[in-house]
Design goal:
7 copies of one chain form a homoheptamer.
Chain A: H1 2-10, H2 24-34, E1 39-44, E2 47-53, E3 69-73, E4 76-82, H3 84-105, H4 111-127, E5 136-144, E6 147-153, E7 159-161, E8 164-167, H5 171-181, H6 188-201, E9 212-218, E10 224-226, H7 229-238
Antiparallel strand pairs in A: 1-2, 1-8, 2-9, 3-4, 4-5, 5-6, 6-7, 9-10
Helix pairs in contact in A: 3-4, 5-6
Protein name (chains A, B, C, D, E, F, G): Proteasome subunit alpha
Subcellular location (chains A, B, C, D, E, F, G): Cytoplasm
InterPro entries (chains A, B, C, D, E, F, G): Ntn_hydrolases_N, Proteasome_alpha, Proteasome_alpha-type, Proteasome_asu_arc, Proteasome_asu_N, Proteasome_sua/b
Chain lengths: 254, 254, 254, 254, 254, 254, 254
């Protein structure tokens, strides 16, 4: 009770530290991320895989309208987890940064540079008053100088680079699945499979083709490509993830 | 009691997260939507149907003054549920965006683009301080590239695309009615019937012609058309929704 | 007690939603309207009637200084109820809008357009921080395209169109009186009589000529005309509303 | 106790409504007016009389430095009650408005126009945040189109026109005195007498010549004229208001 | 206890009224004035005398650095009591106003005009948010049109004109001393004596020459002149105010 | 309990002093520094050594993405401890200052000048409202006029110059280790060894090559150089710090 | 307990008065000054001496980095006590003022003028909202018109001129030491000795040469000169202040 009352005293203000040096609003924004369905990124030698759980709330909702994976530039994609409307703001910000880079320097923005542009933007919302932090985490994947790169941004505005990473619901379980199954010499196909099996691992090892989005950026094409439902179905079948029956889940992704 | 006190600590601030990652002001704005009478959208192969429950509070109030459906552009309409004065702001915003698009690009704005312009505007009011969120949900329907499109915006600023959807009072019941009765190959006439029956389903399966607004945007005409009272009466009769006696209901759409 | 404490938590902030989706400051502004003496509007086939109860606090106060009905433009008038100083702001705003319309388009502003200009202005004060809502309701009446129109604005910024309507003290009783006595084919004379009898109905069916303001805008003249005390006295006599003795009421219109 | 606690919840904010539609800060500003010594205005057929109780705190204070009556323009004067420093702001504002009117239109500002300029200014301080209301009431008197006019402004920003009126301490007693003794056909001399007797009525029917300020604006001269101490002494003698002994009162006009 | 709790509810906000119409922050600023050592002003037929108690805290502090009397313009001086740093702001403001007057109109600013410029400036800090009131009172003395004038400004921004006045610590005792000893036909010498005896009256009728500042503005010279220590010593001796032994008082003028 | 309640009263505001003259938000920001893994700086006669503990949370995270040491300019580096996103802001600020210095003066910025630019920037965030302090400490090392210099910045904005210093977790233990082992005539090699042994001293005297970053700026090269993993491994072996087994620590560096 | 609760009610706001006319934030800023190690200023006939206790926290910290005495201009120096980062802001402000004076008037700024520029700047932070006061006191010493001058600034923004003064820790003891030992005809050498003995008096009459900074500005040179460690050692020896053994004190100067 004592501890709880003390916590309440510090977590109401947007931009202040608690006595133990924590920023509660940022930590609560991380909770908003956990409330979103999961997204997974896998970096393979042949390119980066982004996959997102997008199980719909209603059979009448267009699956394509649950946007979890976005093209940021020709050679870069972004998957999100958390507050959907916040994600749209950051993705628009990233796209503008990518365009500005092409206009100013005549070349594609580096994936690391793009990520840090975004995290600097996020950080401002955690330090300056008058706004709340962004309640969303992003996976930014792409090809830079011929190399596949995969970054995460969190609500504090910290950039992390990963071989394979999960954000959103069940993060610790999914990350554990990735750690147990990731290998450095994965092919792109194996990467897609690992991403799908990771998402399915929190869902009785089942996936519907229209319940997941998958995109890849290969070192060969250096292009953001979204997989079709048919392609995803093939991967689901190849990985034994077909659903036994239709889920009628009431997932709430914000 | 404990939980309640804890909740109070976080829901008074406009733009801050609760410890479990929720934005209470946005959730309360959703309650404002539920306090408004229902609007329903149905996408058919022949076009989009927007219908709105506008039962008046008093026999002396002009039914036309309860505005629930608005023309956004030649090829696009908007139905609303919730705080009426807020809806007017967003609809004006949408109209200006549509006009700007025609001026700048010489063509009609896409329905998806229009929707996302509106949801980005809504999101700002949930993150930046100094204002409250919009207490209204919108259905934005129209024709884009010859295809009917139907979108919902919610108070968080998230866009959703639907085949058929209900907003406002009794949403879960009405949505269930839509899910049970929607079919992909509806004609426009069947779509209007489904929309009216859905609204009536929460009202003892009865509707008065001046208690509902209906508008359509067909793929053929690509034009926003409001049905006359006579046309609506015919649909009401065809769908067996005539009221047995005059309601004297004290509906409160705000 | 529990409910009361919970309410207090949400009604102190200007622009935030309560857990059930209400804006308490707007609802309290509606209470400010109820604290003002009544105004009544009646739309007849021959024109619009605006009437206002302006019983004075003191025999030394000039009755003309209790302003309840104002000319907005040649063809439009406004009656108010509630916080007097707030009403003056909105009426000035309406007048400027009407002037701007004449300057910009060379024609009289439509009554509906004028009303919506005012309600959009009102809405801003309910959403953006730094100010309180307007504590006043208005009746805006006039002639548009040869048709009489009568609108109400409320503190939320919602416009309503009416055949006959009452704002201010005793609204529900007066509105009931209007509903029971209104007929669609009233002459202007009958409309004035109905308006006066409605106001008197909450005052022992008595009225003093200098205790009420009446104005009309007829379809024939399209001009805002205030009735003289003599004209009002005639109507009072014709409708059997003469006071039996002088009231010494301590009315508080604010 | 319950009621008291509830009131406290709403009267701390500057610009918000209480649940019963009241603006407590404005009502408290009215209390500040009551803390000031009284001013009285009387409109006669021959002109307007302004009189103000200015009993000094100390025999060493210059009586002329307790300013209660001010010239606003050649044809207009202002008496105040309440917070002295606030009164100075409003009087400066009124003077500037009068000058602007002369410069812009080449004629003296109307007394009603001048009053409403001032009340609109006052209203802003009751609606927009960042400042408190003005804690002062004014009597604005003058001649407009050959007619004497007498207005009151209150802290809410409402203008009232009066035949005779009192503001400040003991208002209800003084107003009752005015109502009992006012007649429509008073001469200016009788008006001055009534004003002085009204002020004296709350002070054992005694007045010192340097304890009161009197100014007149007659329809003949259309000029603001302050009475000399000798002239005031004559009126005091003529109205039997000479003090029996020197008061050593500790009046606090603020 | 009840009253105390109620008071606390209203005195924390900078610019709001209490239920009885008081501005607590202004009243507390008056307490800050009382915490300062006294200043005294005396108006004689031959000119104005300003005197200030400036007993130092430490024998190592330069007596000249405790500034209580300042030249505002050639013909005007200012004595202060209260918060020293606030006094410096107002005195700088007054000096700039005096310079502006000379530049704009080519003549010395009137003492009344100068005082009202300062009080209008003070008033702003009591009404507009974002700053606290000035915690200082000033005596502004000088010669205007050949006449000696002596004004006081208080933290509310009210100007008062005096024949003789005291501000700061022990005001009521010192003012009583002035009232008992002031005469209208004092010579300047007698005025200096009265001022010094008044200050000494709260200090066992003793004064040290370096514990008091004295300045005069005579109608003959129309010039602000500070008395030397020797001149002050003569006055002290002439008025029998020599200290019997050195005071080691710990006066706190702030 | 008493003391705790009192503390709470003062540590919620961003920029206010507590009764004992402390700025709690700054002290809490220092706690945020302690929550970060340690960084160590050692100044030797041959140059400055910066070393940082960067143990990763997950085997899938790229060690290079945990950024603790940054190049600020050719001749200057910065190591950080605490809130990572805040560190990025300050490092960007430092880089821009260094560039501006080269552009404006045509020469490299001095290390002391660079440090004070940064600390002045930090101080602003502790005094002016609207933002929280930076939750990070920096070590700024480089060569200035041929001399190695090593500075620390803390969240209050105070610059300190050190021979050897530790920031972040276990500061007091690590600083004690430095004090016991530092000698003025260390070679650069010995300096690197001391830095690594200091970091390892809080970790059972073990280090992994990819769990630590090391950079040097020598007086000879005047260039910021990051050591390769192989070079670090050699130092680890030479200092007997090889880990006996793989750590699976759950370090949380913000 | 009662008094304590009452105090808490007034000391949380930045710029408001308590009921007894105190500014708690300014008083708490004075506590921040007391938390700093002491600085001492002594004015002699031959010039001004500034001395500062700068005992370091750690043997590895560069003594020169604990900055307590700064050159403000050729002829002026500043010693500080309290919040180090705040001191840097004020010293930079003073330096800019001195430069501006040279540019604008072509001559060195007067010490009194410089001091008052600084105190006016400090005062703003105690009256206007949005920032906290400066938690630092300064001693500003120099030569003006051939005369040595020594001023103190405190957190309220009040300037004081002194013959000899101490700020920071143990002020009352050190000031008493100065008062007992100061003589008006000190030589500069004796002044340095008095300053050092005063600092040492709170430290068992011992001082280390690198634990104290000393600077002088003589009337002959009119130049700010910092004493070398050797020079200080000589003074320490001459005044019998050599430390008997090395102190390992944990002084905390902010």
């Amino acid at each position: 009770m004592q501890g709880q009352a003390q916590q309440q005293a510090y977590d109401r203000g947007i931009t202040i530290f608690s006595p133990d040096g924590r920023l509660y609003q940022v930590e609560y924004a991380r909770e908003a991320v956990k409330r979103g369905t999961a997204s997974v990124g896998v970096r393979t030698a042949e390119g980066v895989v982004l996959a997102a759980d997008k199980r719909s709330r209603s059979p009448l909702m267009e699956p394509t309208s649950v946007e979890k994976i976005h093209k940021a530039d020709d050679h870069a994609g972004i998957a999100s987890a958390g507050h959907v409307a916040d994600a749209r703001q950051l993705i628009d910000f990233a796209r503008r940064q990518a365009q500005v880079n092409r206009l100013r320097y005549g070349e594609a923005v580096g994936i690391e540079t793009l990520t840090k542009n975004v995290t600097d933007h996020i950080q401002q919302y955690t330090q300056v008053g008058g706004a709340r932090p962004f309640g969303v985490a992003l996976l930014i994947g792409g090809v830079e100088n011929g190399e596949p790169r995969l970054y995460e941004t969190d609500p504090s505005g910290t950039p992390y680079e990963w071989k394979a990473v999960s954000i959103g619901a069940d993060r610790s379980d999914l990350q554990e699945h990735l750690e147990e199954n990731y290998e450095d010499d994965l092919t792109l196909d194996e990467g897609v499979g690992l991403a799908l099996r990771t998402i399915a691992s929190a869902n009785d090892d089942e996936l519907a083709a229209d319940g997941v989005d998958v995109a890849t950026i290969t070192t060969e094409s250096e292009a953001f490509v979204e997989l079709t439902n048919d392609e995803i179905s093939t991967y689901i079948a190849d990985n034994d993830l077909e659903p036994s029956e239709e889920d009628d889940e009431d997932g709430d992704d914000e």
